[in-house]
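dumping the sequnces here before i forget
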Amino acid sequence: MSIQDRKIEDAGLSFGVSNLTTEKIQQTFKALIDNETGAKLKAFSESCMRCGMCAEACHFFVSHDNDPSYSPVGKVSATMTKLLAADGKVTPEDIYGMAQIAYTECNLCRRCVHYCPIGIDVAYIMTTIRRFCHQLGVTPQYLQDTANSHSATMNQMWVKDDEWVDSLFWQEDEAREEFPNIRIPMDKEGADFYYSVIAPEPKFRTQLIYQAAAIMNEAGCDWTMPSMPGWDNSDMCMYSGDFEMMGRLKRQHFELAQKLKVSRIVMGECGHAFRSIYDNGNRWLGWKDYPVPVVHSIEFFAELFEQGRIKLTHKIQEPVTIHDPCNIIRGYGLMDKLRYVAHQLCDNIVEMYPNREHNYCCSAGGGVINCGPPFKKVRVEGNLAKANQLKATGAKICIAPCHNCHGGLEDVIHHYDLGIQLKFLGDLIYELMEKPE
Amino acid sequence: MNSLYNFAVGPLAWAAFIILAVTAVWRLWSMYSLAKQKDASSVAYMSWKFSFRSIFNWLIPYKSLGWKANPVLTAVTFVFHICFVVLVIFVTPHQILLENAFGITYPTLPTKAADVLTLIVIACCCYFVYRRLTNATVRFVTRTNDWISLGLVAAPFVTAILGSWSVGGEIMPLLHVLTAEALIVAIPFTRLAHILFALFTRAYIGSEFGGVRHCKDW
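..and the predicted 3d for all of it:
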């Protein structure tokens, strides 16, 4: 099936394409190739033997009846290969299709790398296509809205400065009933760490801030949450292709930590934000090491358990399965720590297969879920693979320590009627830990 | 015909190898320079340890997910590449040419064994053709240059075996030399460039997965 046969109407893509001419496309493409891409793209493009081995790696391909146009090499062939062959001389309509492929049919999960003998990074190629589409002004409307929010407010969800502070006060206030001495220390200089979250937490998963505060409080942590812009660690600009803005976001996040003189940053249970720090944003800024050490919640929780700072009343007895989020597992190797923490909390872990760094993606990551409702169906139907994996475990609880994965898996569980409850590690720790009488 | 053959294995062969050597060095060097200039943020993470770890693990058949998921293709790919290299080096006429040119001597394959290996390479190429035509994904992405590359690889082996069976008389050895020379010259300019770049792309992704992403890339 060609991308033109499954074109989905999106206001952002339509508007962007309406402003294009073939000349403008070619000019932008040449500038991209001359200025931004280099040996990586060239070597990948020239060495790919088009053997098709990568096809089976992709959940979109597997879930769409092995449709070749959803295979990684098929997606590259319909985008970068076509652009390079035509030296960028393609029509605005072609760009619509390419944007739809790159933004909505690839989660940049990099599973295909495990299948390519030559080591071609399709995620890099798709990211480059997104960068190109961003430069052309052709981006899905919902994704662009989050990118606009980042540039206007330095957070992803249009949360105003006073709303953010208010959310922290609100959660602190609410938690006092259960934990009379609880504090969410704000802008505390020289604390052990600052806890950063993604903007959807104050916006619609505020209970996660409550739970995090409860855990920090009970574990006796010296921590703080900043009141100023930079508190949001998320980065949809990385996915929309707006790398200039990606750099600003990461800089602001780190500079805030430096301003507060904290020893390190602890990031909430999110995957993409971590990718933006260890893989993309740092490179754009030219940093090999971070100016302030950063750890993911999984590492932080593991540390708390190792130090015996979290006391549990009981453990979950029923079967629990673990979803490995690409960005922190295939992306950052936290699979063993995730299992360590999960085993602290649950007695009966049932692994899904494939797992660890060979996991199937939730199909929400890579900014795909942020492309919004127009693309929901293709995303959910494109993840039958995950539904089958989940179903095969027989578990009724699934741990997924990533916001995007929660979004994607919730839709999968609902669509395929799996009857599985999704949990963050924070959900379980909060639920199981000892609380004041 | 004899003088044509002598020209083909003499000056023309020299020309083909010189073109390959010069263009291969130039391609590798320009790619390296481009990487240093444009991909500094990737080059910075290159590591010998993780490069070799990745290359080593991908050299083991059925070790990676990709090799496991494509059992027949994996077998054919390994057999093809091994036979290709063995034949190029150890077939008697090649050794004789090297001996005449540089005085290099080493043991070679008996003719029968060489014929069998040649037939195996041809069979592998036939499988590649079959797969390109019948596998929907591969068919979807196949372009003319994929066929040209495959044709260039198969031609010297087909002419070699026909020559060994004395089919086509004197023309066949000549065609073998000419097609082999075409293959040699084409390496840096076609998809066969993976011969030059695959180790480096593998090393690069191995370094990323080992050093940045802290997990396996196989």
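Chain B has a mean pLDDT of 95.
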